[in-house]
Amino acid sequence: MDLKEIQNLIKFVSKSGVSEVSMEQGDFKITIKTDNPVEQVMVQAPVNMVQAQPQQPIVQPPVTTPEASENKVTSDDSTDDSKFVTIKSPMIGTFYRRPSPDKDVFVNVGDSISSGDVLCVIEAMKLFNEIESEISGKIVKILVDDQTPVEYDQPLFLVDPS
Known about the structure:
With 162 residues, the chain is mostly beta strands. The chain has helices at 3-16, 66-71, and strands at residues 20-25, 28-34, 39-44, 85-88, 93-96, 112-113, 118-124, 127-132, 137-142, 148-150, 155-160.
């Protein structure tokens, strides 16, 4: 069946008011389905070809480790976060709290930091970028779990500059 015959068949089906037509010629099969406002055409090639079906995205739960949950401070509704400075991610990547799996974390809640101290590492395209503090103060809250993806401008830490 050539393209002209398929187009004629589509016109015929749309004018006739039939909602579905299936036709087979050898290893060629065509099904035409119509709804009142919109036409849907499905053409199936020879039987040995497989049509790919859309896959559902895989959603992975966030990784939680005992150290991540013990270093996070639970926020009270009475706490005023406006006095704290937010340190944000300068890039998209994967957030790491330690330089390597066998090393200690860079900072914990309650640690005092100075300008230039390394707070974390963000991996982007197989490059590990050290994120340094631009302010001095005390870490109040770590907003991201270790080994999780972060977006550009996503808050990472809350720091009390006083």
